[in-house]
Specification:
The chain is α+β, with helices and mostly antiparallel strands and 377 residues long. The chain is 26% helix and 23% strand.
Length: 377
């Protein structure tokens, strides 16, 4: 029977700190995995979810979203389209149909257009070869008008782009296949690009997207974009990539819930009450209603906007909710979760004992059966 008492010292329970973990013996000071334990604080900060904390969270969310006068500004939406190699231009010279459509094509209008060559030039009769790449429609129209004035009086020239082929933005990440979206004379925004990506076959559940331009990255909240209060004012450029990562915006429900699962965070946000309800609620037979925790800060996104890297925070914050009281449900409905939060429901003390006992009973029974068999022999 001594086995029973010795084993009872190892009853499972909830422990926040673990000092017995062996450090990585292969990690050195030159290894990015190396951490000097003297400089690392392992103590998490535990906050009780109170009305004051919920109110402060709402104020912080309001400041974070900013407005047109805050945060960063990229190029605004008033820039004109500039022609590039691959575009097809339609040049119309009034009263001179032989110049407008010299081939007489009527079925395929692009065959009557002027293809911008790889070197950025087009050829037009009586004007010759002109470089149009990097110029606006207005500038090219004036160039053609000036060239035709030597052979005709007051030429009337109209110009438009038949086909946009020189500039593209891309939608990549959590999509069926990467999308290539043509950039036209109409400013291409994030919403336009997402709407035109035909390989997005499921609702977008991510709260933010990452816009990659060259070596720069910027995290953009979709909630501000959809509500029309976009403080970023981003107009997509040639080669820009919109990266969707649905798996990043997840909440992890672990512990004594009816279902342990991961939950996507919609653009509108997710509260603690909604996450508990989506997991079927607390298991009334095993859960400790006074021990609901939100663990936050294992992965920080503070460097994501500037350098596109993630910083690991090993000193997380923990928010505690005593769900045994009715008013706690009101607080849970106001407490907003963040992507990568871990919601943990602790088990009741008696449950831990019962589980440990359930693991010990088969072993003890086997010992008694073995003893009876030996004595019988």
């Amino acid at each position: 029977m001594s086995v029973v008492f010795l084993s009872s010292c190892a009853l499972p329970g909830l422990s926040i700190r673990d000092y017995d973990r062996e450090p990585d013996q292969y990690a050195t000071s030159d290894d990015p995995r190396y951490l000097d334990e003297d400089e690392v604080d392992y103590d998490p900060v535990v906050h009780s979810i109170t009305p004051a904390l919920v109110l402060n969270q709402q104020v912080a969310d309001t400041i974070e979203t900013g407005g047109p006068g805050g945060a960063r500004h990229n190029e605004r939406l008033d820039a004109e389209y500039k022609v590039g190699p691959g575009d097809v231009l339609s040049v119309i010279v009034w009263v001179h149909p032989d110049l407008t459509n010299p081939t007489g094509a009527t079925e395929n209008l692009e065959s009557a257009g002027r293809l911008v060559q790889a070197d950025g030039t087009i050829f037009f009769p009586f004007v010759g070869t002109i470089n149009v790449a990097g110029h606006t429609i207005k500038e090219i129209r004036q160039m053609l008008t000036d060239g035709l004035e030597s052979v005709m009086r007051e030429p009337q020239v109209d110009l438009r782009v038949l086909s946009y082929r020189s500039k593209y933005a891309f939608v990549v990440g959590s999509v069926g296949r990467p999308c290539r979206i043509a950039i036209t004379d109409r400013p291409l925004t994030i919403v336009d690009a997402l709407n035109q990506c035909n390989s997005i076959t499921r609702p977008i559940t991510t709260r933010s997207v990452t816009v990659v331009r060259g070596s720069r990255t910027q995290l953009v909240g979709l909630r501000d974009v959809y509500l029309g209060d976009d403080p970023y004012g981003i107009r997509l450029h040639n080669g820009d990539r919109i990266y969707l990562n649905d798996t990043r915006d997840r909440i992890f429900m672990v512990g004594e819930f009816m279902e342990q699962k991961t939950l996507p965070v919609p653009t509108s946000g997710l509260t603690l009450a909604e996450s508990i309800a989506a997991s079927g609620g607390l298991n009334l037979e095993t859960a400790n209603a006074g021990g609901v925790y939100v663990i936050r800060g294992l992965v920080s996104e503070r460097d994501m906007e500037n350098e596109g890297v993630e910083a690991t925070d090993i000193s997380p914050e923990i928010y505690h909710l005593d769900a045994s009281s009715i008013d706690a449900l009101i607080l849970a409905d106001q407490f907003q979760l963040q992507p990568r939060d871990v919601v943990f429901a602790a088990a009741a003390d008696l449950v831990n004992f019962n589980r440990a006992l359930a693991q010990l009973i088969p072993t003890v029974s086997l010992l008694f059966q073995s003893r009876f068999i030996v004595q019988g022999r």
